[in-house]
């Protein structure tokens, strides 16, 4: 199977994430809700996937052969989130990065040459 382009994979995953009702009060609970949603719909993923000793994103999801990091943040400083995503995007095993957050922020279309997307935690409740 030929993988879809990384930007399409990231967008597909964002569409899925935006439709989920995830408890956005406590980050660990939100991660558990996301894990349940990914499991229920058959997505292939690993939780707290170790890219390196320092870089451990919340999820690494396989989307039609493409490895997409998903970092879930309830609230955090924008610069800190961005720096974290920058580090993840440096890894060869990562094809795209997605931020699922309750923090109002945007990302550039690419981070370190990898497609980057943002999904809102609140969208699934609308």
Walk me through what this model shows.
- The protein has about 130 residues and is α/β, with parallel strands linked by helices.
- It has helices at about 5-20, 25-40, 80-90, and strands at about 45, 60-65, 65-75, 95-100, 110, 115-120.
- Strands 1-2-3-4-6-5 form a six-stranded mixed β-sheet.
- The chain is globular and about 35 Å long.
Brief summary:
The chain has 126 residues and is α/β, with parallel strands linked by helices. It has three helices and six strands; from the N terminus they run ααβββαβββ.
Features:
about 130 residues; alpha/beta; 3 helices; about 25% strand
Secondary-structure blueprint of this entry?
Blueprint: H1 6-18, H2 27-40, E1 44-47, E2 59-63, E3 66-73, H3 78-89, E4 96-101, E5 110-111, E6 114-120
Parallel strand pairs: 3-4, 4-6
Antiparallel strand pairs: 1-2, 2-3, 5-6
